[in-house]
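Problem 12. The chain below contains 213 residues. Write out its predicted structure in token notation.
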Amino acid sequence: MILLPFAKILNSNKVGIVFVVLQQTTNGIMKTILQFIIAISAIAFLSCTKETVGPQGPQGPVGAQGESAYVFEVSNIDFIGPEYEVFVDFPEDFQALESDVALAYLLWDVTTDGDGNQLEVWRQLPQTVYTELGQINYNFDFTMIDLRLFLTTEFDPANLEPVDTDDWILRTVIIPGNFWGSRTAIDHSDYQAVKEAYGLPDLPVKTIKKRRK
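Solution.
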């Protein structure tokens, strides 16, 4: 009869001892894991805050002059009624993008400088000429495949003279949208400024008839 209670007590103590041992062991493992996590976090923090300087990379490529824009020229343009418009196809080797910007210039005059060198006078479109009869407006629009030149008048266009309609020379500059947005300080009405800014090539000087001032 005494053994049973003793056995019960003994079993109870054993259970208690086992429980205590398990509890102490679990607490030790958790403490060790916690210390390990703290150590790893400290190492990661130090690694993130430490400045690391890698080797210097290679020098970037030098930009090629003329690749930031495209220019082409068309001669012998005549505005013929009744539409007084001309469609100019872009060159076959040129692929325009929707973001591209087109600038159109008409060769208005050729003068000389103090040294006798010929200087071309290009006027950006749109351009307005004032006559005794009224205004003549030269303008353009464009798509991804062509450009349309046209003129309108405040008077009957039948009264236009050959100096107004015949033998025009057009120079078109196509500028990628990313270059256009970053170079807004350029005076795009000045063809020479555009030529220098975008590295456009030199084209032969032309001989033209005098236009209205």
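Discussion. Residues 70-198 form a domain with the Immunoglobulin-like fold (CATH 2.60.40). Students who got a different answer should revisit the alignment rule from Section 12.3.
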